Amino acid sequence: MSESAARRLSRMFQLISFAIDAKQDHLSHLDGAIGDADHGITMSLGFTAVNSELAKLDLGRTLPSDVFSAAATAFLNAVGASTGPLYATAFRRAAQALKPLESLSPADQAIIIEAMAAGIKDRGKGQRGDKTMLDAWIPAAEAAAEAVSRGATAAEMWNSILAAAEDGANATRSMVAARGRAARLGERSLGHMDPGSASAVIILSAMREAFTEGCS
């Protein structure tokens, strides 16, 4: 990358925030079918707070791990609902996995996805098939690891990550929710996409844009 890894990550969080804001009403609409209809608002607040906090950093002197640590604290402070601790844990795991790296190769980018997925899974005590954001994050992490193992380019890796996440999110329509507020609906949750998996796809799409900008 021609710019510092910290600046690239800051750009990544900006793109995530822009993308979430653009889809805020859609996410809340999805949540309205099986939850409290506030997922879009919650995610927007969280990433707005992240970007406000990152704006205070001297990115020329900041390690990638420090960017994720700051993001974790900001997101958790802004979002008190269950999504807050989940993404805060995801960002903290990414921070731990990146220490003490100063650059971000495609393999390091894959590590971010794997660490975030593991953090969400451990914090939420969930698994694939529960009709949650993990139905997008787990396939994304698996796709990232597989892409690295076959020596894929960054663009190829991110295309695989996003395709796996999209397939996982779409699959939640045929699932009965086993966790979260949607679990109270039982069979009535069938036919609806999980909003958390939908926002995960938006996040991963923005991450792809950030990490492949300028790539041939």
Automatic annotation (TrEMBL):
Is Kinase among the key words of this record? yes
> Which InterPro entries is this protein grouped with?
DhaK_L_YcgS, DhaL_dom, DhaL_dom_sf, Dihydroxyacetone_Kinase
Q: Name one GO biological process term.
A: glycerol catabolic process
DhaL domain location is 7-209
GO MF: glycerone kinase activity
Q: Which UniProt keywords apply?
A: Kinase, Transferase
An annotated GO cellular component: cytosol
Recorded superkingdom: Bacteria
Name the record gives this protein: Dihydroxyacetone kinase subunit L
Where is the organism placed in the taxonomic lineage, from the top?
Answer: Bacteria, Pseudomonadati, Pseudomonadota, Alphaproteobacteria, Hyphomicrobiales
What's the name of its gene? dhaL
